[in-house]
Amino acid sequence: MSDLPYRRATFRQADRTDNKVSLYNSGQPLGVECVGCGRRALTFADPKAFARLQGDMTRLQALKFKCTKCGSREVQLWMFYSDEHREKFMERPVGGPEF
Questions:
Q1: What are 60-94's pLDDT values in tens digits?
Q2: Per-residue three-class SS string for 15-45
Q3: Which residues have a Cβ under 8 Å from the Cβ of 17 and sit 6 or more positions away?
Q4: Nearest Cα to Cα of residue 27 among 81, 89, 85
Q5: What are phi and psi of 54, to 5 degrees?
Q6: CB–CB of 25/57 below 8 Å?
Q7: Which of 3, 33, 60, 86 is positioned for an S-S bond with 80, CB 3.0–4.6 A?
Q8: 76: three-class secondary structure by DSSP
Q9: Paired residues of 33 in beta bridges
Q10: Cα separations (Å) of 76 from 47, 51, 73?
């Protein structure tokens, strides 16, 4: 098998079609990154909160977040493909993900 000239994405930015059901189906919490200061957090990581996602068609981009560090409400939302990818998101330095 030859080496492929690309790397598989570790996570992706949530788009306008993603909703709570698609997040539930991913099996991963939602990554939230503050545009103002770069702080990162995971939401819906609690099993009870995660279970409430099932059947909820609310679009992820309709959710409101506020950074606890700088107070900004402008965030980027990220979806993950695995536990490893979620961990990389939380470890990556401020400045955005690399694909």
A1: 999 999 999 999 999 999 999 889 889 988 987 55
A2: CCCCEHHHHHHHCCCEEEEECCCCCEEEECC
A3: 59
A4: 81
A5: -60, 125
A6: no
A7: 86
A8: strand
A9: 40, 76
A10: 23, 23, 10
